[in-house]
Amino acid sequence: MKIYKNKGYWIQYALKLAEQALKIGEVPVGAVITLNNKLIGEGKNCVISNNDPTAHAEIMAIRNAAKFKKNYRLTNSSIYVTLEPCLMCYEALIYSRIEKIIFGTYDNKSNITKILQRKSTNNIKKNKIKNKILTKKCSDILINFFKNKRKNNK
């Protein structure tokens, strides 16, 4: 297994997963979990295809990483996700003990990370959340997805 230290690499990897989600009609979000810069879990949105409202990219990545580690605690790990995590995913990241969250673009509807960063009562401290990594690519794929969806619904 190769080791990559570049945050941009892991977000690009997550973007490839988002593109896979897009191809199957899902909201294009991808997530990658690393430990010591090694891939231990990945996921893409599959809410529709799995008929599972919890099957967000982050949740799928957490499930895969936990299976890989054979442990529900993913201490010292990082998640790279193309879109800011929602409240459900953020809580799952806290409970799984993931230390760092790196995301590409904000979810302008919720901005949950900005709200929750004010509280540093958990393992994800204020300085452990990084954003705006490949923002344009991460936001463009979502913008285009929703434009096409609105166009097709008319």
Automatic annotation (TrEMBL):
InterPro entries: APOBEC/CMP_deaminase_Zn-bd, CMP_dCMP_dom, Cytidine_deaminase-like, MafB19-deam. The keyword Ribosomal protein does not apply. The keyword RNA-binding does not apply. It is an enzyme of class 3 (hydrolase). GO terms for molecular function: tRNA-specific adenosine-34 deaminase activity; zinc ion binding. Its EC number is 3.5.4.33. Keywords: Hydrolase, Metal-binding, Zinc. Residues 5-123 form the CMP/dCMP-type deaminase domain. It comes from the Bacteria. One of its GO terms (biological process) is tRNA wobble adenosine to inosine editing. Gene3D superfamilies: Cytidine Deaminase, domain 2. This is tRNA adenosine(34) deaminase TadA. The lineage of its organism: Bacteria, Pseudomonadati, Pseudomonadota, Gammaproteobacteria, Enterobacterales.
